[in-house]
Write a structure and sequence with these properties.
8-stranded antiparallel sheet, 808 residues, Jelly Rolls, mainly beta
Length: 808
């Protein structure tokens, strides 16, 4: 082996074993060939590639030259003029299958220049039949009783003896079997990085993307796992990142039929958490029977380290084969649900989180999680009767009991190494055509029986989970997101969806705005999407546009500055971003984002139904959402019931821990408005965590909220109304100050801030009143800048009533 080959092989070895990782391919890459003899890829000979019977070779091609009568070699397992091997060439734009140095079958249809076409060449050794498929449809076939002769030559891609390929290639695959027409149609729009189960005949797969979005994106790794990596001799990468795809689907998942399917992964450090665990996944069950999701157990399931399943449509979990830990939230069928379970061995604390909501929590002392050599199973295991029937996506096992915010902050965003914010070990299977962890290193997931990918890009409709990767657009962190579950249409098969709404408290003028939607539907060309702003302005941002397959699944960000304009039958999927039909900036620009936003979807043809799973907006390219508390506080004495207005003054509102001793998390001062609500911005609050609010005013009683506030993990905002009821204060420690509307205020009179209104406060007020003190002083209890009998009377009444602070 020469030095060049040795260096490249070492590089490929390091890439493969540094942790293979994939997520939605927003960094999609292709290979550019410039028709030069010195511009090609070479894959060394291997037993898998040395095929002498049935085969299938396929690739996405975007040729520059479709007129040359000299054959352009797409790929060939032969060097020079040897009468052996197999390959595929392009002659006058028509694909041809070349075996043993001779073109055996030429296609009938010429490819279009500068347009992507999937080309598939098949040889059925048993039937002596050659076939050519274009975009999964049979172009031509013929009876030719010639099998490829074996050789020890390398597989050359893009280079021929006399003429080389001119244009782009992507998703090059070699199989040692003749794919059926159904398999071709199912697989051709999928990336495949697998060689087990129904895909065991996949010998080589070159998708040209690196394992993650870090560093160099272009890769020549064979992701089938068979080691048929390519060496580069002058081929350039073609960067297709940040664009909707015209070739392959970006988002896929596992599909199980419930009749023996399952997947398994060999045990490793990443599958053996000890102290803590979080199991999570997107699931789409199609039946109400028992549904195993995640198992780390013996092949027969007699004992397990951890388990997450559905029984009687309820989630249940196990740790160390212990008594089942049950959730009481019903899991629906025929729709996507995000499920998560956390466990901490130190105190037995567990939580069930469903669709981003904390549903059940408690204590189950099961001890440390047992490390074993047992496999990790997804969708079932060897001996279980009921296996999963439906779809599973984005399976994660984290060596940490994740917080609610940590779960929610990546619920709609797939994880791989470049965006994994959790510092502990994480197994993350994006399942977008690949079978390795997208985060930390894992073994390969193996398919058993008929388990496989859903192949959502094929010509048979399949649902896709509401997952997206658009980190460069600050998704999810900068977006206000509304998880939802709206049928499209509300009833029947045509008409409008029930309007979904989201209130935003942030008061900021819009200079830029993007829109996120996650919709499953089989007929995207029947749908019209509109967004209504707080002032009633309406934007139609997607209107009756069809995708180029039997799908209307739309999970993307509509960005006015995207370089991809949506049009009928142009794309197979719209992720990660696409231009909207109308302009968000023209419609909503210079207006405030504060207020109620409404999402509407119209299905105008009675053909099918769908669902809206989530939507959201980002304004002004925010990288993180501010933590906003929307509240209303009235100070006794400062409120005028005749005008329903308050004299403005500074109030301090502290976030306090919900756990004794209720330590302070953050203190913010705000200027109380004349009337209505006010927004308080925090920087240290963690969304999803419970907090008490504690109010302090310069001459009022310290007042606590009676219940916790919790900043929504998807919008980072919350609201709490102190003034609507005495019970809004801890211990009902407020006084009514208005009958119409009914309003309550925090008690005044605590001049010396000792948490009680008493004689010491009265003495201070009396002294200042006697001295005719004026201005902004603490003894002025009604804010009129005079200390007089009115102030004394207010304090005297509260002292007589023994008003004092009441705290948790």
């Amino acid at each position: 082996m020469n030095r060049t080959h040795s260096a490249i092989l070492l590089f490929l070895f390091l890439v493969i074993f540094s942790g293979q990782s994939f997520a939605q391919m927003f960094w999609n890459q292709a290979a550019f060939f410039n028709a030069s003899q010195s511009d090609f890829l070479s894959v060394p000979n291997s037993p898998g590639l040395n095929i002498s019977s049935s085969f299938t070779i396929e690739a996405w091609l975007c040729p520059t030259d479709v007129t040359s009568a000299t054959p352009q070699v797409i790929m060939q397992k032969v060097q020079g003029i040897s009468l052996s091997g197999y390959g595929m060439v392009l002659t006058s734009g028509k694909p041809a299958i070349r075996v043993n140095g001779i073109n055996r079958l030429e296609g009938k249809t010429s490819l279009q220049a500068n347009k992507w076409t999937h080309v598939c060449a098949v040889f059925d050794d048993a039937a002596n039949t050659y076939s050519i498929y274009l975009d999964s449809k049979l172009d031509t076939s013929g009876f030719i009783p010639v099998s490829p002769a074996s050789n020890s030559d390398s597989l050359l891609i893009g280079r021929g003896y006399t003429s080389s390929f001119d244009g782009l290639m992507d998703e090059i695959r070699v199989w040692n079997k003749d794919l059926t027409s159904d398999e071709i149609e199912k697989y051709y729009r999928s990336t495949l990085g697998v060689s087990s189960g129904k895909y065991s005949s996949l010998v080589m797969s070159l998708p040209f993307q690196d394992r993650d979005a870090q560093g160099t994106l272009f890769s020549l790794v064979d992701w089938s796992g068979n080691g048929n990596d390519a060496y580069n001799y002058g081929v350039s990468p073609k960067d297709l990142k940040y664009r909707p795809s015209t070739t392959i689907i970006h988002n896929d998942c596992l599909e199980f039929d419930g009749a023996g399917d399952y997947t398994a992964m060999e045990s490793s450090t990443i599958t053996n958490p000890v102290n803590e665990i979080t199991m999570e996944a997107w699931i789409y069950p199609r039946t109400t029977s028992e549904q195993p999701i995640i198992f780390k157990c013996t092949p027969t399931g007699t004992s397990n380290s951890y388990r997450l399943s559905i029984f009687n449509r309820k989630l249940f979990a196990q740790i160390n084969s212990g008594m089942s830990i049950l959730s009481f939230d019903t899991i629906p069928i025929n729709k996507w649900t995000h499920v998560a379970f956390t466990y901490r061995a130190s105190d037995g604390d567990y939580k069930f989180v469903i669709n981003g909501k904390l549903r059940d929590t408690g204590t189950a002392l099961r001890g440390l999680i047992t490390s074993t050599s047992d496999s990790l199973y997804i969708g079932g295991f060897t001996n279980v009767v009921n296996k999963f029937n439906g779809f599973i996506d984005e399976v994660r096992i984290t060596h940490k009991a994740k917080s609610l915010y940590e779960i929610c902050s990546s619920m709609y965003s797939s994880i791989e190494q470049s965006n994994d914010s959790v510092t502990v070990s994480t197994l993350c299977l994006n399942l977008d055509g690949y079978t390795v962890s997208n985060a930390d290193i894992s073994q390969r997931l193996r398919f058993r029986n008929d388990a496989g990918f859903a192949h959502a890009g094929g010509n048979t409709y399949k649902p896709v989970s509401p997952m997206l990767r658009a980190d460069y657009l600050n998704f999810q962190k900068g977006f206000f997101i509304k998880p939802t579950d709206r049928r499209i249409p509300e009833t029947g098969t045509s008409g409008s969806m029930t309007t979904d709404s989201m209130e935003i408290f942030l008061d900021e003028d819009i200079s830029d705005m993007n829109i996120f939607v996650a919709v499953n539907h089989s007929m995207g060309d029947n749908l019209r999407f509109s967004l209504t702003g707080p002032d009633g302005s309406v934007l139609i941002f997607q209107s009756y546009r069809a995708l180029s397959n039997e799908s209307g699944n739309i999970v993307t960000v509509f960005n006015e500055y995207a370089d991809s304009t949506n049009a009928d039958l142009k794309y197979i999927c719209l992720s990660p971003e696409v231009k909207p039909s109308g302009s968000p900036i023209s419609t909503f620009g210079t207006r405030t984002c504060r207020g109620l936003w409404k999402m509407d979807i119209l299905d105008n043809v009675a053909q099918d139904t769908g669902r809206l799973y989530a939507w959201g907006i980002v304004v002004n390219n925010k990288t993180v959402l501010p933590r906003v508390l929307n509240t209303n506080v009235i100070v006794q004495g400062f409120y005028n019931p005749a005008t329903n207005q308050s004299i403005r003054d500074t109030i301090r509102c502290a976030l306090r821990s919900s756990v004794s001793p209720y330590s302070q998390v953050e203190l913010v001062r705000f200027y109380n408005p004349l009337s209505g609500l006010t927004d308080i911005h925090y920087s240290n609050a963690t969304p999803g965590e419970d907090y008490y609010l504690r109010l302090r005013h310069r001459n009022s009683i310290e007042t606590w909220s009676s219940s916790f506030v919790n900043f929504d993990p998807f919008t980072s905002q919350t609201e709490y109304r102190f003034n609507t009821s005495a019970a809004q204060a801890f211990g009902s420690n407020q006084i009514q100050v208005d009958n119409s509307p009914v309003r309550f205020a925090i008690y005044g009179g605590d001049v010396n801030q000792d948490d009680a209104v008493d004689a010491s406060d009265l003495a201070l007020i009396d002294n200042d009143a006697t001295a005719f003190i004026t201005g902004y002083v603490d003894t002025d209890l009604n804010g009129d800048d005079f200390v007089d009998a009115t102030d004394y009377s207010l304090a005297d009444n509260n002292a007589t009533a023994f008003v004092s602070a009441i705290a948790p």
